[in-house]
Amino acid sequence: MGAMNTPNFSGRKWFPGTTGGPFHVLIQLAQRIESLPWPVFAVLLLVIAVIPSRGSWTRAAILLGFFLADWALIAALPASKKSFGPAKPPALLMALLRLPFAYLPSPWFFFSQAAGTLLAIYAYWIEPHHIGLSRQVLLSPKLPPGPPFTILHLADLHLERMTGREAELQRMIRDLKPDLILFSGDFLNLSFTLDPAAWADVRALIGEWTAPLGVFAVPGSPPVDPPEVLPHLFEGFPNIRCLHGEKITLRHNGREFDLIGMECTHKPSADGLKLRSILGNSPLIRFTILLYHTPDLAPEASAAGADLMLSGHTHGGQVRIPGLGAIYASSLYGKRFEAGRYLVDRMILYVSRGIGMEGMGAPRVRFLCPPEITLWEIGGTE
Prior knowledge:
Layout: H1 22-34, H2 38-50, H3 57-79, H4 88-98, H5 108-126, E1 132-140, E2 149-154, H6 164-176, E3 180-183, H7 196-206, E4 215-217, H8 230-234, E5 240-242, E6 246-252, E7 255-261, H9 268-279, E8 287-291, H10 298-304, E9 308-311, E10 320-321, E11 325-326, E12 340-344, E13 347-351, E14 372-380
Parallel strand pairs: 1-14, 2-3, 3-4, 4-5, 7-8, 8-9, 9-13
Antiparallel strand pairs: 2-14, 6-7, 10-11, 12-13
């Protein structure tokens, strides 16, 4: 991506990642669906199954069986310590997604519904629980030549309870031995922000993170990492530092570079002004990394002279369609910065798919969008 204009979002009434927006309203509605008594919900599924059955109770019974199987396999996730979300909202969503295929003639009707079950098993039970490693290289004229240093970028932990995914994450960090670890926010899951057990699990996880140049983090979205909770997560840990609008200089083999960490309000106009105040008006001589939760500050960061911006927040959409990409990306720019590496003027932006998943009534699902951590090799040029 080349040069781009910086839109003015100051007049917006809501921002992705804050309360009150359409997505937040939707997952709140899902919470209400979860509160339905199970017999009422079962009758609702039966009504949906009857709609496309064209008077055939056999077809309705088969379709209801698939609906109930979806409900059961999602409800079994917490007991299996895979994920800990509600079962009824995603089961209802899957029932609605199955409806168009319920009009197919036999045997395609049955085959399509069976394929839906296999996809559900993969999207709920398999893909979200295997972390991928993405490798990136960046060479900058602001750095002298020499052996590169490595940065491990982590994003969107969204921890509910300690699971096999988090154990795998710890193994990967130990094996990679990065020079620097950077976390771009969202430690907690929205469903567990005030849960002391979730706090304890986060502390058990981040308490093990170490790197020669340090471990640095920034807060995520305010509803996910509440300002009154975040200090409890870091209390007593000398190994990790949460940055709140700070610039620090790090050194590796005689080379200096700057790291800026900012909390995220999801309002680029306000956060852009804060970034400018941190950087000042002088040209940035040293290689500069911005650690910030959402990619929505990328145009402002590029204009301010940052060289590399590490973000997350979008989760890559969690569900991606071949040829289309993310169905939805929680960004002011829509799908423009949904996941991966972008060139914004002269700045590199990387948007991680993250490790965890959305909370409250949102499905704990990933499809063609596995969790990731990213290892950067940063070097200089002649």
